[in-house]
């Protein structure tokens, strides 16, 4: 393995692949049950939740594929950063699927306003309760990984949204029993669709931030540059760039202008430790300069 490659143990998503697989099996099985119940009962709330369950299945499948690619060593010599970004693209798929489900549910809900179809409530109660149980188990399995991996976080957020959907199904059934009005099925389905859309936008912003190579969340460029200039031997810092390669892998590059007589090796070690311990940069590539490089002034981007 080359010095630029990382093993599977270092990849956050790869560490939680087994739990992702268990959640995928649970969600896929229950989705089939809910689709059948939704079609038999005619409940839009159940159908919206089943649609979101389908989004869960797509998202989890993409997450599993992504973690497999992300943990695979590069044998071509062309992917110098490996395939870690695969999990970010999988999170992007989750966003698109969630938005598609949300749009469908909202449009269908608006189309049913004014109608009054007869909808049996007992399938909604049973399926809603079972769905909530499946979601609860899934959340427990994914909670730790969601703190480390954007890919797992995408799946975790999908399950959170679906748990809310299961609660919504139970609420809709309860209100229909109390009031005798099927309008609550439409109202709850509309609420589920809007909730899913909001969750998708939140995750989508994170995905775009990574793909756009924005500074990692919580990383202050000015504060990092200031801390580096305060180190013994450092006179100035320029061309400081930081971005997220994938979840848990924040990287940075910078040029350090050394003072006369500074110990290059000791300065390099202190600078890397500062970025790692204070600013959360797992890997920093630093160029040490005795005098300003002409290339730094010539480059216009």
From TrEMBL:
The chain crosses the membrane at residues 20-44, 50-67, 88-107, 119-142, 154-177, 183-202. Keywords: Ion transport, Membrane, Transmembrane, Transmembrane helix, Transport. Residues 217-290 form the Cation efflux protein cytoplasmic domain. It is found in: Membrane. Pfam families: Cation_efflux (PF01545), ZT_dimer (PF16916). The keyword Thylakoid does not apply. InterPro entries: Cation_efflux, Cation_efflux_CTD, Cation_efflux_CTD_sf, Cation_efflux_TM, Cation_efflux_TMD_sf, CDF/SLC30A. Residues 21-211 form the Cation efflux protein transmembrane domain. It is a multi-pass membrane protein. Its main location: membrane. The keyword RNA-binding does not apply. Belongs to the cation diffusion facilitator (CDF) transporter (TC 2.A.4) family. SLC30A subfamily. NCBIfam families: CDF. This is Cation diffusion facilitator family transporter. It comes from Demequina zhanjiangensis.
């Amino acid at each position: 393995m080359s010095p630029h490659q990382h093993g599977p143990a270092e990849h956050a998503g790869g560490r939680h692949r087994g739990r992702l697989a268990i959640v995928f099996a649970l969600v896929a099985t229950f989705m089939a049950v809910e689709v059948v119940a939704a079609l038999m009962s005619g409940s839009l709330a159940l159908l919206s939740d089943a649609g979101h369950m389908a989004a869960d299945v797509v998202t989890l499948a993409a997450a599993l594929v992504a973690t497999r690619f992300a943990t695979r060593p590069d044998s071509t010599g062309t992917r110098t950063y490996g395939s870690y970004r695969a999990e970010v693209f999988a999170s992007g798929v989750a966003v698109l699927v969630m938005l598609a489900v949300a749009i469908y549910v909202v449009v269908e809900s608006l189309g049913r306003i004014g109608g009054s179809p007869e909808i049996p409530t007992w399938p909604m109660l049973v399926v809603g309760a079972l769905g909530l149980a499946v979601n609860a188990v899934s959340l427990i399995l994914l909670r730790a990984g969601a703190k480390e991996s954007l890919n797992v976080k995408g799946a975790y957020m999908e399950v959170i949204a679906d748990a809310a959907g299961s609660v919504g199904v139970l609420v809709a059934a309860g209100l229909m029993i109390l009031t005798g009005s099927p309008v609550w099925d439409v109202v709850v389905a509309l609420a589920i669709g809007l909730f899913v859309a909001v969750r998708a936008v939140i995750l989508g912003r994170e995905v775009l931030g990574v793909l756009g190579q924005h500074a990692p969340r919580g990383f202050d460029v000015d504060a990092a540059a200031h801390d580096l200039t305060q180190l013994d031997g450092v006179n100035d810092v320029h061309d400081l760039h930081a971005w997220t390669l994938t979840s848990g892998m924040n990287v940075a590059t910078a040029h350090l202008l050394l003072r006369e007589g500074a110990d290059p090796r000791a300065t390099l070690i202190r600078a890397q430790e500062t970025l790692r311990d204070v600013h959360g940069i797992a890997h920093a590539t630093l160029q040490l300069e005795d005098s300003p490089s002409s290339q730094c002034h010539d480059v216009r981007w």
